[in-house]
Amino acid sequence: MKRVVIAGGGVVGISCALALQAEGHSVTVLEPGPIGEGASWASCGCIAVGEIVPLSQPGMLMKVPGWLLDPEAPLSLRPASALGLLPWFARFTANSMPSRMRAIAADLARLTFAATADFKAQLADIETPELLVERPVIKLFDDERDKAVMGAAFDLARELGCTIDDISGREAHEMEPAIATDFKFAAVLRDWSFVSDPKRLVKKLMQAFVQRGGTVLPLACKGFQRDGARVTGVETADGQLLPADEVVIAAGTHSKPLAKNLGIKLRLEGVMGYSTGLQDPGLDLKHTVFYPAGGFGVTPYENELAVAGTVEFASLAAAPKWRRADVLVKRAHRVLPGLQDRHHSRRMGRRPFTPDTRPIIGRTVNLANVSLATGHGQLGLTLGATTGRIIADVIAGRPLSEEIRAFSPDRF
Ligand SMILES: Cc1cc2nc3c(=O)[nH]c(=O)nc-3n(C[C@H](O)[C@H](O)[C@H](O)COP(=O)(O)OP(=O)(O)OC[C@H]3O[C@@H](n4cnc5c(N)ncnc54)[C@H](O)[C@@H]3O)c2cc1C
Fold it and tell me: Considering its fold, how many domains does the chain have in total?
């Protein structure tokens, strides 16, 4: 049995905690924020098995210059943060080469294709199977040009094994009568599903962990005590030193400064996104519906309809711009003409993005007992359970498949 300290109790950190606890370790999670209110709370809630083609796909990049001039565009870059983000952005765009896109998509597919089974096993373990809603996702396109932007990404995803059916806008309306009648094209992403309440998910995972003897401290990790190539203790914000045989850094976007503290340079930026929960939406929706031209998705959660999306590059210190959340709700009327948006609540999340869209999972060569579990970008909810399983293998010293090495923290 090892004493494991995990920095971060978001969906990834708590999934690692449960998986390590199941191996018999004594696990402590440091989580300074309200439980369940990490980035996954602002997410679209999808188990996005087919979301394997990086955002740096050429079709998207071509649109970026126009988007940057439009304050209401689905993608924006805060001028004050631009300079600091340039090196990350340069690496990100370098990954738009077809060979790199294909390699990244194939690597991600190896993880996402395991995600549904891993997630179901996790939900069975905490006896909450109803949190997974096994219904495909619908993507909507205004016209041929709009659909073409996704064309290459869909082709690549299909080639790698994803099931995507092209349907007409009319057929999408028949599947979901709340959808407007005038979309020309749509696609049904058959491998996807969604979580009926991401906040409840994280809380349930945390509850199970605590009931089984795990410790959660409402404190931030501030630093580490080292003895050569080993970390021997974790320093908390209130000055405690927690002895540790193993440390897992799973603090989402905040993993970057924590890793830096240990001399590990992560190429990681927090890409902001917003979600508005509509409490009385005035319509019944059964599937998650994405409108890529608007940069958002709408998911029917248990107690609200969530309109979530946008990609906003900004520094970790940048405050939310709630206007961007309001723009999404305004645009959602295009998709769902009967939508009522009187009663709502808003949240912001920072997706921890690497320039190659691959998450960071595993040990770093220079430290014997530190693992990283971060950088999941728009796949953190999807890959929480899978990441927990892999981190348990890492800490047990079980041999990792060659594929997992693609996610090594040392690749930067
Ligand atoms: C608009 C939007 C839509 C999305 N849609 C999807 C989707 O459909 N499907 C999907 O899979 N993903 C989606 N995502 C991405 C997903 O939400 C993230 O990838 C995921 O939440 C990351 O989980 P995490 O646990 O790594 O980070 P977080 O959820 O951010 O958790 C990190 C935790 O670390 C804590 N922390 C911070 N600093 C410290 C410290 N010093 N010490 C200890 N703890 C610390 C924080 O309080 C936080 O709770 C979306 C994200 C957004 C914003």
Answer: 2
Residues 346 and 286 in one domain: yes
Q: Report pTM.
A: 0.96
Write out the DSSP string of 222-280.
EEEEEETTEEEEEEETTS-EEE-SEEEE--GGGHHHHHHHTT-----EEEEEEEEEES-
> What is the Å distance from ligand 1's center to 84 Cα?
22
The answer on 302 and 283 residing in a single domain is: yes
The reply to whether 406 and 286 lie within a common domain is no
CB count within 10 Å of CB 217 equals: 18
Where residue 78 falls (left for φ over 0; alpha for ψ -120 to 50; beta otherwise) is beta
The sign of the CA dihedral 194, 197, 201, 204 is negative
- The protein residue whose alpha carbon is closest to atom 18 in ligand 1 is 380
Q: Which of 353, 379, 395 is the last residue of a domain?
A: 353
Which atom number of ligand 1 is nearest to the Cα of residue 222?
41
Do 185 and 90 lie in a common domain? Answer: yes
119: in domain: no
Which atom of ligand 1 is found nearest the CA of 257?
41
Instruction: Give tens-digit pLDDT for 313-359.
Output: 888 888 999 999 999 999 999 999 999 998 889 999 999 999 999 99
- Domain extent, residue 339, equals 52-105+132-193+270-353
Q: Judge if 251 and 399 occupy the same domain.
A: yes
Q: 91-127 pLDDT, tens per residue?
A: 988 888 889 999 999 999 999 999 999 999 999 999 9
Q: How far apart are CA 12 and CA 20, in angstroms?
A: 12
What is the distance between the alpha carbons of residues 370 and 229, in angstroms, rounded to a whole number?
A: 10
